[in-house]
Amino acid sequence: MNRADTDTTPHYDPALGLAGLPSAPRWESAGQRSLYRSDWVSLDLIAVRPPTAPSYEHHVVRTADAVAVVLEHPERGVLMLHRHRFITETTGLELPAGGIDPGEDPVAAAVRETAEETGWAAVRPRLFLTRCVSNGNSDQLFHFVHAGVGQWLGGPESPDEGPAVWVRHEHLRDVLGRDLVSCAPSSLGLLHAMTFGLLRAGAGAGSVPAREQG
Questions:
Q1: CB of 192 within 8 A of CB of 103?
Q2: Residue 203 forms beta bridges with which residues?
Q3: Contact present, 130 and 65 (Cβ < 8 Å)
Q4: Degrees (nearest 5) of the Cα angle 162, 168, 171?
Q5: Cα separation of 32 and 23, whole Å?
Q6: Are strands 66-73 and 142-152 parallel, antiparallel or unpaired?
Q7: Are 190 and 173 a contacting pair, CB within 8 Å?
Q8: In the chain, alpha helices (H)
Q9: Rounded Cα distance, 163 and 171, in Å
Q10: What is the pLDDT of residues 158-201, one digit of tens each?
Q11: What is the value of pTM for the model shown?
């Protein structure tokens, strides 16, 4: 029998919100134990009971929340870093991003990380999204901040983060479509900003070095 003849998957009306969705089976946790802890990361084992399967222990990585910054100039576009990541052995474009210090506000962290990684001041910062980008094995939250470009502060703290480039507004879809953005947080932040009208229309063409003036 063709599965299409028996498919009962309902259609979802977003106007109904979460109340319009079928009930999600709840997984119950029943205690945890620590395997490793440091100032940077922790690894726990959580005893979990799925709704219909036997209980088991699930590894969970716990690390500090982080922030990613959509730093926008009305004509030059969005500032991105060309970075190599040794863990995944990938190289591509990323938004300026980093960990949030203990007690630090996500917006304040965005301003700090932008200055440290790019050498630019961020002005009029606004938090627009908070999401867990790997909620199957980590509880880390990524906070996404949109900001305008302020004054040039004299350069990044270290060249190790990778060179910065301006990606003009009309090229953002292209860099995403050509798989030039190398990580999920950067893709998510850009797509959300583009989809929901956070970015202004820009003029000109091409990607230009971040320090280029005029």
A1: no
A2: none
A3: no
A4: 100
A5: 26
A6: parallel
A7: no
A8: 106-118, 172-177, 184-195
A9: 18
A10: 888 899 999 999 999 999 999 999 999 999 999 999 999 999 85
A11: 0.88
